[in-house]
Amino acid sequence: MKYISFLGLFFLSLTLEAQKSSALDAIGKSDMTTLASLLDNRVEICFDNKVQYLDKAATVQAIQDFLSKNPPKSCTPSHNGAAKGNASQYTIGKFVSTNGKSFRIFVFTSEQGGKSVIKEVKIDIEK
Fold first, then answer.
1. Could you report the average pLDDT of every consecutive run of 10 residues in the chain (127 residues)?
2. How remote is the C-alpha of 49 from its chain's centroid?
3. Is 17 exposed, middle or buried (0-12, 13-18, 19+ CB in 10 A)?
4. Rounded to the nearest 5°, which phi and psi values hold at 102?
């Protein structure tokens, strides 16, 4: 029984990791359709310490505006973790734009209705 529980947790962690990577992949590829499918209905979004609470469509638009000003060159995960019990997870990545600017991206996800959804996106320029 312990073996089955371990396998279940292992595959759940792989699925959650893929979803977190999918968010960074979507941002790195400017894939707003995939990103929208991962977002909660309401998202906390922060650009350089300016926090907004936006609905899904406005969040997609805000990130699309960011990407139009900072076209992606690369977007790679650098660290991830989970809260106790894996109810929420986060990923930190580095985004490099074709205009030479580098940003730190933080994506926070939480379980909702059996699905991991993005609750928060924070993008800060690296100085």
1. 48 42 91 96 95 98 97 95 85 96 96 91 94
2. 17
3. middle
4. -120, 140
Q: In sequence order, what E strands does 1-127 have?
A: 39-47, 50-55, 72-82, 88-97, 102-112, 115-125
How is domain 2-125 classified at the CATH fold level?
Nuclear Transport Factor 2; Chain: A, (3.10.450)
pLDDT, tens digit (0-9, with 9 covering 90-100), for 14-24: 444 444 458 99
CA distances from 52 to 77, 78, 119, 120 (A): 24, 25, 12, 10
Q: What are the domain boundaries of the chain? A: 2-125
Q: How far apart are CA 120 and CA 127, in angstroms?
A: 22
